[in-house]
Amino acid sequence: MKRGLQLRPEDNVATLLEDAAEETVEILGLPERHLVSVRGAAALGHKIALRPIPQGAAVTKYGAPIGVATRDIADGEWVHLHNCRSLVDERTGSFDPASGAATDTRYE
Hints:
Layout: E1 2-5, E2 13-16, E3 20-21, E4 24-28, E5 34-37, E6 41-42, E7 47-49, E8 58-61, E9 64-69, E10 78-79, E11 84-86
Parallel strand pairs: 1-4
Antiparallel strand pairs: 1-2, 2-7, 3-6, 4-5, 7-10, 8-9, 9-11
């Protein structure tokens, strides 16, 4: 079974320890065993939602808010630039989710 890591009970995302797609992932890090069904695909090191996160709600990792959901995020869904805006880098709303390239800057 693939695995993910949740560091604090208040976290609503876990970091994948392996690539996962349309499968059940065991969430490590807390005393109780937790299983999440991944919706779609997410790569090693990326976040998945542990429970539904409504649009405008904080995305919490390490016990601290790291971003804001820009749309409703379903449990098990990949959490990244396409559905989350960073609280650390205000430009994240203008990044292409596939490449990470800024869409608000023209490169020639």
